[in-house]
Amino acid sequence: MLQKRLQDKEMMEEELIKVEEDFAGLKTRFKDEQKLSQALTEELELAKRELSRYEQAEKQEVNQEHLLLCRLQKEQVKSRLLGREVDTLKDKLQKLMGTDESICRVQTDHSTLQRKLSQQEASNRELAREMKELNSEIDRHRQIKNLTPGSNRQLFPDLCQNTKEVQTDSLTSDYSEKQDEESENEDPNHNTEVMNRRRSLVNSLNSLNSANNNVSPYSSPSADGVDMPPSGEVMMLTHTPGQPLHIKVTPHHILNTATLEISSPTGDAATSYTSTALIPTSGASPKQRITIIQNTSLSAVSCNTPPSSPDRTISPLDGTPISRMLSPNSSRSATPTRATLQSRS
Q1: Residue 183 pLDDT > 90, yes or no?
Q2: 343 and which of 147, 169, 277, 332 could share a cystine (Cβ 3.0–4.6 Å)?
Q3: Do 53 and 175 share a structural domain?
Q4: Can you give the pLDDT at residue 142?
Q5: To the nearest 5 percent, what fractions of the chain are helix, strand and coil?
Q6: Is residue 92 located within the same domain as residue 198?
Q7: Do the beta carbons of residue 301 and residue 200 sit within 8 Å?
Q8: Judgement on whether residues 103 and 169 belong to the same structural domain of the protein
Q9: How far is 60 from 48, CA to CA, in rounded Å?
Q10: Which domain holds residue 85?
Q11: Helix 2-147 with 173-185: angle, nearest 10 deg
């Protein structure tokens, strides 16, 4: 029994040794598995960390894309608003350009109208002065007509001229160019107005001519007795009493000039005076002084007359005195001291 127990005990010891060996092997294996599990756990943690980083980076990218998308939408809205503002500014700029052009046109029209107004005012002043001179001349001739007896009305002589020189105040080239520019800028009705003005002046001269035919000389003793020309001689010009004066004004619209012709129709021995003057087109033109040239030669007779015999009258054109002498056979002749014509536009 004891031997059997010993055998069993030995078998149990052997089994126990085997179990211990297995336990040691399992323990070693457990440690290895534990180390492996720790390594895997660490790798898992690292993977989790990497995954979390990737998730955070993806979230950041998504957020950045969202922000960029929002910014893009905002920029698109701003671009649309700026496009509308640009269109509005373009419309305003076009309106301002049209307003500027209209202002330039209005300023040009204003300057043109201002120039025309100044020209018209100067022309009106000139016409008023001419009308005043013509009225004073007509009144003077009426006074002469009223103060002169009717029997001597046919003794009024024609106007004569004894000079051969022409003295004119020439216009400068700058003034001529200015006149040309102003004449180009004037209205088409201005030429008609100038023609009507010239016709009125011609009618006034014709009325003065008819008045001169009915007026006899107004006598008054002069201070010196006779009028002496610059040469110191008294020029006696024969004249047929009772002959009218023919005054003819011929305007040349192309050359912008006018020809004045004064003649006395006395048959073969007719005496005429002709002068051509430039007509300025501006209302503020300077006066042009013209000396009328005698076309035919006049017979000049020198004589000595007592100081009490001459009488003086007034020239019908410019109011200059004309000395008259009585010859021994009671014939009258006139010596004009100066005959000038004021040419006006």
Answers
A1: no
A2: 277
A3: no
A4: 87
A5: 55, 15, 30
A6: no
A7: no
A8: no
A9: 18
A10: 17-111
A11: 110
